[in-house]
Amino acid sequence: MSYRLPREPSTPRIAVWRKLKNLGIEQIGDGLVALPDDARNREHLEWIAAEVLEADGEAMVWVAQTDRASSERLATQMRAARDLEYRELVKEASDIAASPDHRTVQRLRRTLRKINRRDYFKAPTRDRARLAIDALASTAAEAKAGASR
User: Fold this and answer.
1) CB neighbour list of residue 39: distance below 8 Å, 6 or more residues apart
2) Separation between Cα atoms, residue 149 and residue 146, nearest integer Å
3) Cα–Cα distance for residue pair 110/97, rounded to 1 Å
4) Taking the alpha carbons of 134, 138, 143, 144 in that order, is the dihedral positive or negative?
5) Rounded to an integer, what distance in angstroms lies between the CA atom of residue 36 and that of residue 62?
6) Residues paired with 32 in a beta bridge
7) Residue (of 48, 56, 60) closest to 5 by Cα position
8) Are 132 and 96 spatial neighbours (Cβ–Cβ below 8 Å)?
9) Among 5, 30, 47, 57, which one has the highest count of C-beta atoms within 10 angstroms of its own C-beta?
10) What is the pLDDT of residues 70-128, one digit of tens each?
């Protein structure tokens, strides 16, 4: 997708950028982002493009074909970005491992689901993050059961 929005007001530009980041885009250049081509991503990009147009901007959603090296480079960059997010989640789980509560575990599970939705190339720490949160959930459940005795 390529897009351009006026600098002012900044609210539409910020909203579009957040939505794109939530999809897990890779920024190729100023106003040029990439995602793997599938129906879900295309639909999301079309909705965002409509938002850009409503905010007096310009937007185009297009399907690009790249050479193998470029495709692999984009996949590597996207995988690394998700890997970093998973690592941060594992660290957060580790930081609260001694005394997790149900709400925190649920919040971490939601975060994990959000990262999973944009993990198109299976980042290496994906399973480690899931296991860390599962362990946290078990610890929280055991603590709750012990407190109710």
Assistant:
1) none
2) 5
3) 17
4) positive
5) 11
6) 2, 29
7) 56
8) no
9) 5
10) 999 999 999 999 999 999 999 999 999 888 888 999 999 999 999 999 999 999 999 99
Cα separation, 33 vs 139, in Å, equals 41
**Amino acid sitting at position 122:** K
If phi over 0 gives left and psi between -120 and 50 gives alpha, with beta otherwise, what is residue 8? Answer: beta
Please tell me the pTM assigned to this model: 0.87
Three-point CA angle 129, 105, 108, nearest 5°: 50
DSSP conformational letter for 85? H
Coil vs helix vs strand at 137: helix
What does DSSP assign to residue 3?
E
Q: Which residues pair with 29 in a beta bridge?
A: 32
Structure tokens at 34: 């990439």
